[in-house]
Prior knowledge:
Elements: H1 8-21, E1 29-31, H2 36-44, E2 49-51, H3 54-60, E3 63-66, E4 69-72, H4 92-96, H5 99-107, H6 111-137, H7 141-167
Helix pairs in contact: 2-7, 3-6, 5-6, 6-7
Amino acid sequence: GLSVGEPKNEMREVIQHCGALLPAEKPRYLMGVGTPQDIVYAVTQGIDMFDCVMPTRNARNAHIFTSKGLLRLRNKRYRQDTKPLDENCGCYTCQNFSRAYLHHLDKCREMLGAQLNTIHNLHYYQDLMVGLRDAIAKGKLSEFVATFEENQQALQAESLALEAQAES
Length: 168
């Protein structure tokens, strides 16, 4: 296994090395790898199962995984944002609560905020794995990975632009 925070190049070397040695007909388990990007990469290398604290730990710190990348809910720009955490998500949190309300719960240190964020992050990870399995079954993993990477970069670019705008 690996631990969260290992340098990416070392993590990828270990995954490639072990993936080549492990029997393809057996389940391949990788622990300690938890970002969506790392999971997608590991799946492309033949890894089947993961376990990591990242979705729950990040939820407690108001870091939200979305179909467009990481959303840092503590940012003041979400104070009046009436959109759900992720408009592409069908989880209980996204169907019932706004970013503004979840931002408020976090600022007040209300435990409900962390619980709702956790529900969302776990749902996001489950959906990610369903998408990966479906893409593999259809022989479209490379297309899935390309779309995933584009979506992740979209929120990053938007965040940088908004931060630059706020500073000016």
